[in-house]
Amino acid sequence: METNTREIFLSACTKIAERLSAYGFKPMQKAQTLRKTTRNKKVYFDIHFQSSVKNWSGGVTLWPYLTIASGELKKWQIQQHQDKDATGMIFATRLENLTPLKNKNQDWNMAVSNQENVIPQLCELIITYALPLFDKFEDTGLAVQDMVANGVAFNAHFDARHQNLPIDFLCCFGSQELAQAAFDNYLRQQKLTAGAKRVYEEMAAQKPPVNKNITDSTMRAAYRNHLTINT
Description:
- The protein is an alpha+beta fold.
- The protein folds into 2 domains: 1-138, no CATH class; 139-231, no CATH class.
- It is 45% helix and 14% strand.
- The protein has helices spanning 5-20, 71-81, 115-136, 140-150, 167-173, 176-190, 193-204, 216-224, and strands at 26-28, 33-37, 44-50, 61-69, 89-94, 108-109.
- Strands 1, 2, 3, 4, 5 and 6 form a 6-stranded antiparallel β-sheet that branches.
């Protein structure tokens, strides 16, 4: 009997998990999510694998996504902002965006005949480009300082334009002053002062939030945390 595509996909996830276990990743959800937690347990990193409903035996798509989040940040968001929908999210992107494959929607074909070649290639990208980013958050204080200086320019390949700055993370693990400095640099580097003023006016008028730009959520977070727009 032919193995169905779901089984092929999960088998590939398991093989990836086995390769990355040496780097501290543990499988969850039948290895569809691999999680690594910092030594101080404050931040965790997820690699999540999604697939397509259009799979067939010769084409089993896998898409890797990266997430950095914090349970401690989630608790802070709930307490600080009474945010019942808080997630503790710090950063999320597709793996390719941190690599020379950036801005390409790479479909990793995990068909049985491909796995021997494709899985090592995918794992090498994770080890080379994702792990250094994860390592930055082993020391949250240094991660905050890095964002104050460099925003979300996490490596030479990542396109930091139109990316959100994790204001809540900066306030929770840094300070109001450090978050303000990071926000000042962010507005200047991204040339978003006018957009920030628009969002601040909407927030002050208690208008329903409308995402005119991806970065509007940064402005709303800055407003909630009482950061100022310094021109």
